[in-house]
Design brief:
The protein has 207 residues and is mainly alpha-helical. It has helices at 3-12, 15-30, 37-43, 48-54, 58-71, 87-92, 110-117, 124-147, 152-173, 179-194.
Length: 207
């Protein structure tokens, strides 16, 4: 077997994983639309033929990237399905963002970022991002229901709105610790939802 053939086969091994790793790094550092497919192939490194064999379109690559982040715990929502921490801590983990490094700045929520870069609500990427954000509120609803909170559906919407807003502001301000402000508000919401409401002033008095 020739050296060239051996090298080519070695390069083909793990090609999909290398493509996704390269895409993740480039998307985080410079955004999705600013990253070309040729740049991903060069960074991987793989041939363009190999790249398109795995991902026919850029949308396919972006969705696979988002799926990879979700399955590897690289999103805010990943804490919601953990079973090693209590339900309340899973919810509050929504407000802990990964710190920036020399390669990638604070990016906030990757699903919001992707939806913003693919604004057409009918596009495959935007649709996938929407599905994940709807899943997020369903998971939070289940957790606050488990905690015994009042009006769990409304509370869950409030909590995910806080989390998404904090992630977006953290990205704009470049402050990975910005979520602490929203976490404080989330704790108040949870505490109030668990406290028995005061008797209504209009309730009839029993004599």
């Amino acid at each position: 077997m020739s050296t060239v053939t051996t090298a080519a086969r070695r390069q083909g091994r793990g090609g999909r994983e290398r493509i996704l790793a390269a895409a993740a790094q480039l998307f985080a550092a410079q955004g999705i639309n600013a990253t070309g497919m040729e740049q991903v192939a060069e960074q991987a490194p793989v041939s363009k033929r190999t790249l398109y064999a795995h991902f026919r379109t850029k949308s396919d690559l972006v969705i696979a990237h988002l799926q990879d982040l979700a399955s590897s715990g690289g999103t805010l929502e990943s804490a919601l399905t953990r079973e090693d921490i209590p339900a309340r801590e899973r919810i509050l983990a929504l407000f802990v963002l990964p710190a920036a490094d020399a390669v990638a700045p604070v990016r906030g929520c990757p699903f919001i970022d992707a939806a913003a870069e693919f604004p057409d609500p009918q596009s495959a990427v935007h649709s996938y991002a929407r599905e994940q954000k709807l899943l997020m509120v369903r998971l939070v609803t289940a957790l606050v229901t488990e905690l015994g909170c009042r009006e769990p559906a409304a509370l869950a919407e409030q909590l995910v709105t806080l989390a998404d807003g904090a992630a977006s502001r953290a990205m704009v301000l470049g402050d990975a610790d910005y979520g602490r402000h929203a976490r404080a508000a989330a704790e108040v919401l949870l505490d109030n939802a668990l406290t028995a409401p005061p008797p209504s002033a209009c309730a009839p008095r029993i004599r």
